[in-house]
TrEMBL record:
GO terms for biological process: cell redox homeostasis. Its EC number is 1.11.1.15. This is Alkyl hydroperoxide reductase subunit C. The gene is ahpC. GO terms for molecular function: peroxiredoxin activity.
Amino acid sequence: MTLRLGDIAPDFSQESSEGPIHFHEWAGDSWIVLFSHPADFTPVCTTELGYTAKLKDEFAKRNVKALAVSVDPLESHHKWISDINETQNTRVNFPILADADKTVATLYDMIHPNSLANATVRTVFVIDPTKKIRLTLTYPASTGRNFNEILRVIDSLQLTDHHKVATPANWQDGDDVVIVPSLQDEAEIAQRFPKGYNAVRPYLRLTPQPNK
Ligand code: BEZ
């Protein structure tokens, strides 16, 4: 099934390294980073899961839960977690779904016929507390993902959900933002952005990040 931005993330029940997970119930009111990797005991995946574990505090600050998935069985995940902890100097602190029957891989279209046979590609789904899909990413097997970029997008989504702004190229939390083109009422602009704005063009209006 092709999943698109704004779709409701499909619900599922599956085994995980931290016990059975009923996805929507488990997600609760959190944002979710659901990410698949091709296989346990592979080098790039080992670094990715280790790095994700180290981002625990960053995820917590943003009300985000991480959930990894591959089609490896539970026993393999448990052995691999020990390896990740040892080699990456961390403790895996999020569940890894053991999707041996491909329930999740099928629902989220994570096995691509022209990529690795029978293995989930590197996908990322960012899902908001209403269960809407807000970001999708697909990476090649040979390229580890940039998890700081995933945090950056979550920062942008959480900001732009509450203020009439969008975030420009390479924006980082604290940088200037752009006022959405649909906002034209100067009284509302003055009230929302008391520090003013710089209109480089009528359609390109930069303002200090409003929640700082
Ligand atoms: C890795 O995680 O290192 C990897 C997995 C599949 C193919 C190539 C690399």
